Predict the structure of FAD/NAD(P)-binding oxidoreductase family protein.
Amino acid sequence: MERQQEWEGDRRRVVVVGGGVAGSLVAKSLQFHGDVTLIDPKEYFEIPWASLRAMVEPSFAQRSVIHHRDYLTNGRVITSSAISVTDTEVLTSEGRLVAYDYLVIATGHAYPVPKTRLERLKQCQAGKLAIELMTYIMIDLNENAVPAALNLLEKLPLIILARRSLLVHNGFRLLEFIGPKASYKALDWLKSKHVEVKLEQSVNLNSASEGKYLTSSGETIRADCHFLCTGNPIGSAWLKETVLKHCLDDFGRLKVDEKLRVNSRKNIFAIGDITDVKEIKQGYLAQKHALVAAKNLKIAMTGGKESKMANYEPSSVKAIVSLGRREAVAQIPLTTTIGIVPGLIKSKDLFVGKTRKQMGLDPRIVDA
Ligand SMILES: Cc1cc2nc3c(=O)[nH]c(=O)nc-3n(C[C@H](O)[C@H](O)[C@H](O)COP(=O)(O)OP(=O)(O)OC[C@H]3O[C@@H](n4cnc5c(N)ncnc54)[C@H](O)[C@@H]3O)c2cc1C
């Protein structure tokens, strides 16, 4: 086993596990305040809500798949998965032991993706070709899948051009994580685009063969291609046999206090979708967690008073779901609205420029 990192002068060792929305932002925010190491199985951060637009618009892929090293200029990146943790070290799948003074756990979701940025860009390109060629069936089997299913909505115009689209969802309404009004508006919008929606049905993918899919009601659907939008499991399996196992709730989420520290541990924080914070799991909230945790870590690392630390306030339900490139359905306090106005806020750029800017990068740049 290889031991990493000795004490770096008087800089505290901060290890961030997970380079997604929350982890990459906290690492970026702390890189000049501590000796920061980011552990992530891929060498890039990808803006998840742009991942499907990236498949139809190559410039989106270029802007939304970002090398960790581009924003983490004063930290180190270990391209590997964390598989265990003790009170002082994180163990990676390649057998490295990475010592920490402060640990931030941000392994929101675990899903297989290419390791390198180049491979990921090629994957998007292949997806683009597939979309241009095929009929689609979209399968949304459970409510954890909401974000993925939502983003499929935004490339519907292109799919519709391709031929015919069908969305299968096992719930009784779409967008179950927000209010029914938004569900019905989105459903009407889909119908107006001639998208067939099958609710309260699921698809047995194991029985799918040669373009035939069997639904739970016994119907056979034919499709050239399908998109699975059933969400990804919480990325906490690696913690189950560790010193933090008692900090997981029944859903596999890490219990945090209002400072975003894991269960009374002064030097371990958790942020993003992996936490048990009582609010919807959304990227803009994961970013808020990262900023609160960064503030609190800076105070902790300099021996500041706990009373100076920020408390995280769970957010009420707010969401904007893109419907194609121009429209969107938005649920904000007191109202739900659909059309070009919410679309103007989100659908054109999907906050990609804004997210890049937050990471200290040029919002527009399209590199090779
Ligand atoms: C398709 C899609 C569309 C979405 N649309 C929106 C939207 O429009 N608006 C919005 O606000 N939110 C949206 N979301 C939700 C948003 O992306 C999540 O809430 C956000 O990504 C959570 O951030 P996170 O950092 O907690 O987790 P993630 O972004 O999931 O990052 C987790 C990171 O941890 C890494 N990881 C996992 N396990 C390990 C391990 N063992 N060791 C090391 N690293 C590990 C992963 O590789 C990943 O990099 C969408 C999500 C998806 C998937």
